[in-house]
Amino acid sequence: MGTKGREIVGMDIEELLTLLNKAFADEWLAYYQYWLGAKVAKGPMKEGLIAELLQHATDELRHADLVANRIVQLGGEPVATPQGWYENTNCGYDAPTDPYVRVLLEQNIKGEQCAIGVYQALAQKTRDADPVTYEMAVQILNDEVEHEEDLQSLLEDLDLMASRH
Ligand code: MG
Ligand code: FE
Ligand code: FE
User: Fold this and answer.
1) CA-to-CA distance for 63 and 119, rounded, in angstroms?
2) How far, in Å, are 16, 74, 112, 113 from residue 25 at the CA level?
3) 86-95: per-residue pLDDT in tens?
């Protein structure tokens, strides 16, 4: 923990650490949900979905890394157990038990939309109080916005294919 780096944070650090740990829990659950979804996907256009899910899973793990680093910088402790992910998550976990492409797409779009809300809120809360966390939140928000669009355009293609047959 850097003392000056912590001192310049103009908001309650415990509150900030709670928000960061909730986002951290979300990232691990999203990582696993997408990673497993890519393993089990079945149905039309599954190759496109698998490619996106693997890329997004990699991004979510990178987000977990960014958020964990910020938690440690601020003197906090990243959630230490998988049970803790469940206790802290904002966005929850949708098990990919139905492997059909459309179902996975819908579940994962919901996850990305939740993530967009989480990082939008974190960015708003930190914009003036903590520029370091703000910059990280905006960086992650950019990825989540891209993830949503990737999946929604796949769903659109799936609908087009179904309507032209
Ligand atoms: Mg993508
Ligand atoms: Fe993420
Ligand atoms: Fe994402």
Assistant:
1) 11
2) 14, 17, 14, 16
3) 999 999 999 9
DSSP-based three-state secondary structure for 100:
strand
31-63: per-residue pLDDT in tens?
A: 999 999 999 999 999 999 999 999 999 999 999
* Distance from Cα 104 to the centre of ligand 1, integer Å: 15
CA of residue 154 relative to chain centroid, distance = 19
- Ligand (nearest to CA of 146): 1
pLDDT in tens, 11-23: 999 999 999 999 9
CA of 51 to the centre of ligand 1 (A): 8
Q: Domain 25-163, CATH 1.20.1260.10 — does that match?
A: yes
Question: Taking the model in full, what pTM does it have?
Answer: 0.96
CA distance 129 to 122: 11
Please list, in sequence order, all residues whose beta carbon lies within 8 angstroms of the beta carbon of residue 112, skipping any fewer than 6 positions away. Answer: 56, 144, 147, 148, 151
